[in-house]
Amino acid sequence: MDQSISWITVGSVEDIPRQGSRVVRTAYGDIALFRTVADEVYALEDRCPHAGGPLSQGIVHGARVTCPLHSWVIDLASGEAVGPDEGCAGHCPVRVVDGAVQLGLAAFRPGCGGCGHG
Amino acid sequence: MSTHTNPPTPRERLVVVGNGMAGIRTLEELLAKAPDRYDITVFGAEPHPNYNRIMLSPVLAGEKTFDQIVLNGRDWYEANGIKLLTGDRVEVIDRANRSVTAMSGLTVPYDRLLIATGSTPVIIPVPGSTLPGVVGFRDLADVDTMLEAAAKGGRAVVIGGGLLGLEAANGLKVKGMDVTVLHLMDTLMERQLDRSAGALLQHELERRGITVLTGADTAEIVGIEKVSAVRLKNGQELPADLVVMAVGIRPNTTLGKAAGLACGRGIQVDDTMTTSDPAILSVGECVEHRGQTYGLVAPLFEMAKVAAARLAGSAEAAYTGSVTSTKLKVTGVDVFSAGDFTGGKGCEDIVFRDAARGVYKRVVVKENRILGAVLYGDTKDGGWYFQMLKDGTEVAPVRDTLIFGQSFGGEGAANPKAAVAALPDSAEICGCNGVCKGTIVTAITEKGLSSLDEVRAHTKASASCGSCTGQVEQLLALTLGDGYAGEAKAKPMCKCTDRTHDEVRRAITTLELKSIPDVMQRLEWRTPDGCHHCRPALNYYLLCEWPGEYKDDSRSRYINERVHANIQKDGTYSVVPRMWGGLTSAKELRAIADVVDKFAIPTVKVTGGQRIDLFGVKKEDLPAVWADLNAAGMVSGHAYAKGLRTVKTCVGSEWCRFGTQDSTGLGVKLERMTWGTWTPHKVKLAVSGCPRNCAEATIKDLGVVCVDSGYELHVGGNGGMHVRACDLLVKVETEAEVLEYTGSYMQLYREEARYLERTAPWVERVGLEYVKRRLVDDAEGRASLNARFLFSQSFSQDDPWAERANGSVDRHEFAPLAQVG
Ligand SMILES: Cc1cc2nc3c(=O)[nH]c(=O)nc-3n(C[C@H](O)[C@H](O)[C@H](O)COP(=O)(O)OP(=O)(O)OC[C@H]3O[C@@H](n4cnc5c(N)ncnc54)[C@H](O)[C@@H]3O)c2cc1C
Ligand code: SF4
Ligand code: SF4
Ligand code: FES
């Protein structure tokens, strides 16, 4: 399935702080790239499914991020809210090749709820 | 039973000599069996009610307070009609007349007498051994002496590298002394540990900064009026301000011998705990039973059971001796030992080493049964081995995996709950009190217990050395399922750990943990890198404990503190420059106006803290906004920080006709002193120029109200969701005192409040009296808190905006990584 996606290099893993995030501006809106303590890289729409908070500004722990606005916890791999909260952030395929971070933007899947406040 | 006579005969009189662990345990058991049988009098040479002697080590190390280790307070004696005479040593037993006479001259007759006088530390008879500054490690008075010495710093020499000596050494080290341990043998704790484990232990203690000299034979304690050094037989001399003798204990038989009771090394008793005089029983470390004496509580508690049964009139109970196991109570060092591990003919050694994790285990097996075990670094299977050792269990069926422990092969390895669930009912959980799993589970279900304290009260499990507390909690959880709410008092920091904020903080200090990964590693965090609850707290605790040394971890900060601005609901930020004491100037206002125009900032608002808030700044504009504000001399107002926010002032004597002092000027001084500090939660100050209190100083974390004769300092107030008015802390006369009190109050709050606890709930939790004791009653303590505050301030007063405006810090925060599509 990888073959069907065209990958765009957006920077190197080193550009993203460990346990941190950087934003990529795209036609689909801002995409937040996360780098975990184990150096895995994930990409989510930079909008919390609760009320649109910028997830890139959250605290990254394990493979999760806590939204800075009201502390929802979002799973980085799926974009789903964890625990009692329900909703999911848009999700974008990402891979690391020789230290370069590549986004499969064409396969970007927007979040289910978007801004939960409608 | 002989209680049916009427008219009621006077009750039999029971006198207990020794208000310690074995004596009072006997009474507890007796009261449970025959509550009304005796009129009871207890003599205790110490001035305290009954306390948990084992826990003196944690008290010395500052991990527990004395109040926390009291087993039975005076109200317990009262409630049970026991007459307690503390601070009164029994001097004579008159067996012919059946009475005892104490130091105070008081004589009390008995029908039954229980001697439980414990033991005394052995003091080696070298010259100088009676000098002031030489102590044993036995009772609270000894701990007080040690703490007093430690408060002055200096050097301590501990003679004896056994359990007590090492616990003393660790405590004194934690308390800041230079500590040397002298040990006669060539490995530490040689009676409990083999060479390998002893060497690992020595290495760990040395890593903590304790010097260990083995093969060290003391020749003399040197000193004129008090100890100044210890000289060894090889001529080496070690300077010392304090010498702790921990070379062993000797059963305290003085009274028994003088009364003519049969004594060997201890007061001799038979299997019913009766001495050579049938009216006199004896229990505890003072006795000798079948040629054995004991120095750990587990056997003493077994003796107490038997003695209580005898006193209650039962003929069946008998004590037949005990096998013991040992654990060292030094936080972060896990050592377990049981039985005989010297090996010898026909013995097999099974050894496991994992140098990377610092684990060493050795189990000695003879004829398919466990003879002894030594565990270092991972002691969770200690109880399991000990149980099989005592039961003489055949180990052939599990021989191959024995050394890996009980949970090997099962899923239990990483799951303590499953491990406890897998235990048979007969498995012993609490070694000190000999309580097995079945007893605890039955008590929980039949008596409807739902907390650790209740289980302790009913079964004694985990009530002594406390090392099985975790397992007892697992049993509560297993038995009650969702009905077990956990321990209310000891709420863990978050789901990543079982430890409370206070426990983690103490560990940071005592184990000298200096980074977040270090804390998580040593304290066994369950998650790889914590969560949004624990990381900011740990970052704060480390910053507070190691000023100038700890490097702030920006990834563990909430976004506002990471980018030094307040995030708003639309993802933009607000910016608040500092206005010292609420003062501003034309130049500052002009610069603000220019910034507003230049960056098209949509909203400008005056805050409740007397400054100006610029709303709707885009994140990428922040550095440029700050550069412009910096150019006009303005710095960050920390309006986003768990730190000092504002110092609100009124105009005071400079303009106001009621003003008594220069409240604005004082406010500026306070703000200059305190800005930039990190605290558990936000801190707001205020200064009002007279009791009309226009600056609302009495709902601030610290508020100053000026009066004609000086300054009233009010603490622990806040507005917000739960309004709390301040309490008056003290009244002082000079501005210098206001500054010193403020610094010391801030530091006390920084060091002792839990993360995210504001001063209002903190003051309510610890009590105003406590704060007064630390700040008002203790001038020296106040000065040193203030000094610590100023020291940490010397590292925190750099403007965070300037560093980011010039691009030298966190540049990546403010620019997108890329623009695509
Ligand atoms: C620092 C420390 C750490 C320890 N750690 C452990 C441990 O981890 N595990 C463990 O199992 N054990 C440990 N122990 C040992 C344990 O505390 C003792 O085994 C236990 O306290 C002995 O109980 P006892 O009642 O025989 O003596 P004590 O508890 O000493 O009680 C005797 C009491 O009698 C009083 N007394 C003596 N003579 C008279 C008199 N003539 N008149 C009136 N009162 C008198 C004494 O003042 C004392 O209060 C430790 C001991 C110490 C000191
Ligand atoms: S508190 Fe007193 S001094 Fe200050 S402005 Fe009000 S009336 Fe004047
Ligand atoms: S009172 Fe409520 S709405 Fe107003 S600023 Fe504070 S948190 Fe926001
Ligand atoms: S917007 Fe993310 S938690 Fe509310």
Please report the first level of CATH classification, the CATH class of chain A: Mainly Beta
Number of separate structural domains of chain A: 1
Q: Give the oligomer, counting copies of the same chain as homo and different chains as hetero.
A: heterodimer
**Helix-strand pattern of chain A, N to C?**
EEEEEEEEE
What is the CATH domain class of the largest domain in chain B?
A: Alpha Beta
CATH architecture of chain A: 3-layer Sandwich
CATH topology-level name of chain A: Rieske Iron-sulfur Protein
Question: What would you say this structure looks like, in words?
Answer:
With 118 residues, chain A is mostly beta strands. Chain A has a single domain, classed as Rieske Iron-sulfur Protein. In chain A, 0% of the residues lie in helices and 35% in strands. Chain A is built from no helices and 9 strands. Chain A has strands spanning 8-12, 20-26, 29-35, 41-45, 59-61, 64-66, 73-75, 94-97, 100-103. In chain A, strands 1-9-8 form a 3-stranded antiparallel β-sheet, with no helix packed on it. A 3-stranded antiparallel β-sheet of chain A has the order 2-3-4, with no helix packed on it. Chain A has a 3-stranded antiparallel β-sheet with strand order 5-6-7, with no helix packed on it. In chain A, a hairpin with a 2-residue loop joins strand 2 (20-26) and strand 3 (29-35). With 821 residues, chain B is an alpha/beta fold. Chain B folds into 5 domains: 12-118 and 252-312, FAD/NAD(P)-binding domain; 121-248, FAD/NAD(P)-binding domain, CATH 3.50.50.60; 501-557, no CATH class; 558-636, Sulfite Reductase Hemoprotein, domain 2 (Alpha-Beta Complex); 643-798, Sulfite Reductase Hemoprotein, domain 1. Chain B has 26 helices and 39 strands. In chain B, strands 5-2-1-9-21 form a 5-stranded parallel β-sheet. Chain B has a 5-stranded parallel β-sheet with strand order 11-18-12-13-14, with helices on one face. The longest helix of chain B has 18 residues, at 735-752. Chain B starts with 11 loop residues before the first strand and ends with a strand. Residues 409-414 of chain B have low confidence and may be disordered. The structure holds flavin-adenine dinucleotide (FAD), iron/sulfur cluster (2 copies) and FE2/S2 (inorganic) cluster. FE2/S2 (inorganic) cluster binds next to loops of chain A.
